[in-house]
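Could someone model 4'-deoxy-4'-aminopyridoxal-5'-phosphate with this protein?
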Amino acid sequence: MIYFDATATTKPSQEVLDTYNKVNKEYWFNPSSMYNLSVICQNLIEQTSANIFKMLNLKDKFIYYTSGATEANNMAIMGLVKPYINQNKHIITTEIEHPSVYNTFKYLESIGFKVTYLKCKNGIINLDDLKASLTKDTILVSIMWVNNIIGSINPMKDIIEIVKKNSHAKLHSDMVQGFAKIKPDFAFNDIDLITITMHKLEGLKGIGLLISNKNLKLEPIIYGGHQQLALRPGTLDTGLIVSAAKTIRLALEKQDASYYYVQDLANYLKNKLNKLPFIIINAPSPLQSPYIVSISFTNIKGETAMHYLEKADIYVGIGSACNEKIQTLERTILAISLDKERANNMIRISLSTHNTKEDIDLLVNKLQELGSK
Ligand code: PMP
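Reply:
Sure, complex below.
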């Protein structure tokens, strides 16, 4: 099997699985109960957050443990704007966000919020557009760091500066595809709300993090007990939470080495793809994540190509996994190309340290075979 879909998810590492099993075997108690065994679980969770703060250089933050990035994105956005319903407030996002951000904004628009969807013709936002769209009524700006379809990298450092200087808005960023993969040129601490998820980093599914400013008031979107400041109630899984710190530590330790390895693979792949006349590489931004190579065929549907490769035991994506089932046109490709055909004909090749140049040779051979049919 050759797996080129690490943007959709990754196989959990043995170390993370071991941590999960070890902690869960001993500390499976409800952390909210009052007896000592529960207090130990609660302490382990607090220790985990403290470890993550240290690894990411965070101060005055709170970590909400969620089921993943979809929930963290919803919590951040809905939680922040909920007190402002029917107050004519303005919120900003981009036209190429993941559905868990984009569709939340669409909902908020439907209930009366004024929404600006920043254009991303080059796969990234235009900083002047951002500056011009901020008003005294803007309460939230949500801009992803690395796009999950084409791997374009937004200039977060400039975005932080512009939002801080020109507004009172809070800044949220979906960092799922950049975190522990791309070296940041900004401080995580300077962003009010950050979303990450563990299953893209060889961690477990069912655990995401919303890292919030400690003093930031969010409204709950689900109601229940007092866990996690009553903002994300429900019984916590100590093992899953401790596994998150392990996932992050391992990913950060390997970040640079992985980046250079994958960058070399991406260059090797792109050189080969550039020689195929029936393929366009979707990479309009000068800054690209090497982990994601998005291509469109001139005359083959993405879905057809995906299934053709699948027969050879090669797995690629055809857009956001959350969208694949409903086969929507890929919003990101439409945004950069305004071309429906190109959106329909795209596949996403995700690279990881588990791939080799031999894997790429096999993939390109298959693409060549398909193109000459
Ligand atoms: N944001 C981005 C950029 C993603 O790539 C994904 C995963 N496709 C998500 C959010 C959703 O993550 P999760 O599966 O943890 O809900």
